[in-house]
Structure formats: C-alpha cells, structure tokens
Prior knowledge:
By secondary structure, this protein is α+β, with helices and mostly antiparallel strands. It is built from eleven helices and 17 strands. The two termini are 25 Å apart. About 8% of the residues have low confidence.
Amino acid sequence: xxxxxxxxxxxxxxxxxxxxxxxxxxxxxxxxxxxxxxxxxxxxxxxxxxxxxxxxxxxxxxxxxxxxxxxxxxxxxxxxxxxxxxxxxxxxxxxxxxxxxxxxxxxxxxxxxxxxxxxxxxxxxxxxxxxxxxxxxxxxxxxxxxxxxxxxxxxxxxxxxxxxxxxxxxxxxxxxxxxxxxxxxxxxxxxxxxxxxxxxxxxxxxxxxxxxxxxxxxxxxxxxxxxxxxxxxxxxxxxxxxxxxxxxxxxxxxxxxxxxxxxxxxxxxxxxxxxxxxxxxxxxxxxxxxxxxxxxxxxxxxxxxxxxxxxxxxxxxxxxxxxxxxxxxxxxxxxxxxxxxxxxxxxxxxxxxxxxxxxxxxxxxxxxxxxxxxxxxxxxxxxxxxxxxxxxxxxxxxxxxxxxxxxxxxxxxxxx
Length: 416
C-alpha cells in the first residue's frame, strides 16, 4: 500500500529537490522503456540454439483442507513456488513453455535460485544438446537475483554448464510479467482441486502429485521439484567457491554478462543490437564495465583498485578522503559487537551514511546494512528513503557503532 508523505520546504530548497527528483524520475522512466524495448527485441530475434528464461518467485502456496479445525489455519504448511517461462527461437513450433519449481524449502535466496536453475539447465540441455547460450530475465531483489552470488554464477556459467549466459534485470517496480500470471493460475488450480475434494495438498510432495495428475489431464505447465537435501548440496557447493566480492553500484546494474572465471561485464541497461547480441567485445556500444569478483593477490590488488576507481569516476580527492578516514579510524569494529538493528555509521560508495544492520555473514565478514539517505540543503541530515536501500558491505566499511539511536525531528517525516 502506498503511503503519501507531506514535506514542507523553503522555496529554494524545494526547487533543488524538485530538479533532483525529476532527473531521477526521468532516468527511471528511460530505464523502464529501454529494458522492455531491448528484451522485446531479444524475444523476437532470439538466435538459434539460445533460450530466454523469465523467472520470479510466486507467493508461497498455503496448504489447506476442505474441512479443518481453526488451529489448522495457523499451523498450515507452505509450498515454495518459483515460476519460469522459457522462450525459444521462432523456428521452434512451441515458442513458449511454462515451468514451476515446487519445494518445501521456503528460502527465497540465491542458493534456492541456483538449485532451481541447476535442474532447469539440465532439462534444457537434454532437450537441445546444441544449446549455445542462456539469457536470464528477472526483477531486481538483491536477496534473490541481483547479488554477488548470482554474478559469480553468470561468470562461472560457461565453465560449469558448457555455455555462456547473460542476466537481465527489470527496473525496480516494473517487474510484472507472465510469471505472475503463471503463479496465480497454478495456485488457483491447486486450490480449486482441494476445495472440490479431488486431492489433498499438505506438503510439497502432495503438490507434485497433484501436478502430475494435472499434466495427465492436459495441463501444459511442467513441474520440477527440489528438497532440503538438494538445497544443502547447492549451499555447500557455492560455499566452497572463492567468495566473491560485492560489485560497486549493484543497484544500478540491469545487465550482466559472463567474461570467464570470476569476471563479468555490467551495464546500466541491456543492449541487444546486432553486435552486442553476438559478442560485446566487438561491439561499439558504450557503457560496459568489467568487474573482478575476487580479490587479486599481491601487487595486482593495487591495479584492481586503480581500475575500479577509474570505472567509478573516482578522483584523487576521493581516494585521499578514504585514506584520511582509514588513518583516523583506530580499529575495525568487532563483528561480535554487531547484531540485527544495530545503528552504525558506514562507508558506501566513498561517502558515509547512517544505517541499521539487517544481517551478518560471519564467514565472509560482511554486514548487510539498510542505509538512510541524505536530506537537507547540504545533506546534513538523514531520512529513510521511500524504497529500502539495503546492501552487503565489508566489515572494514563500518566506521563505528552508534550506541544511542538518533532522535528524529519533523512532524510528518522523520528526519535525523
């Protein structure tokens, strides 16, 4: 539900804020149009032996019975559903095929995505052993699709599965598509079957049994299943890889292309012109940035830092500022001093912000922080943005712990 906020500003401050918000909105609309346009071009001109997988997690299916006691409502089991629509080249008779991955594992994260796609790729290769490339398309939640684990999945795709891959992200707030309709229709069909007394669904296994009978009755949707053991195997496999580092500007990325082991190209928007469709290394299109997903050893790390600073437009003054912060900071904040909802001051894209800890990765020594945004004419205050800005950062980027939560001011909008 949308909540409207009223903010009163002096005329000069209003003009500055209006110009800034208008520019951001214009860029947002441009990205929306570009993504839909480029992905339409991809679907209409999909090369031979390539496929596009549009995917999304549906809301979990709640297991119900025709008749049940009241307490059963609060103890009902859930089934996780991950919907996928596969697009094939125009030469195929059946250009579109719907898939649903069902599971009793309710985690909607990168490990679950990898577990599902590991099975899907096997199915697609079995259908077409000559498969040359897979294009992925999803919305942009960082916990599921747009994160360092998925970036590494794309980088390692050719080595692991035998073909390269590209991942496209729809603009935030504009991720609706056929997967939403697929999820709704499947849940409605299963729910109706239960209410009509045709089946009983109390687990993911029961759901798959209903799905098997639905297929025999003429349903065109195909189903795959993964359990806790499959999930644990994937989690162990991914944990044994070299831990990838977070990519700067992750929230701005809408196009990721693998470039060999632990390297990816990224772009603010997708591009499927004739040259980019074949090979971006020979394309004249601008905007591609190369990212290393692992830290280089020795002096090469200095080269990587310089390359990253050039790609991000970092100036000498920016680097001096960070060096000064490092010199003034006596020691790194201890990981055991942090917990969920701890208030911290942290560095993010060469600037410091206030935020709250959301999650902690003790193995990688990383912290997920929900950042506030600057407000005021000179950025001297902070407030919560309309859309959550949550990102994983290294523990070294935590400047200090704020022992007492800041006191907000403002009647309608809380400003710190």
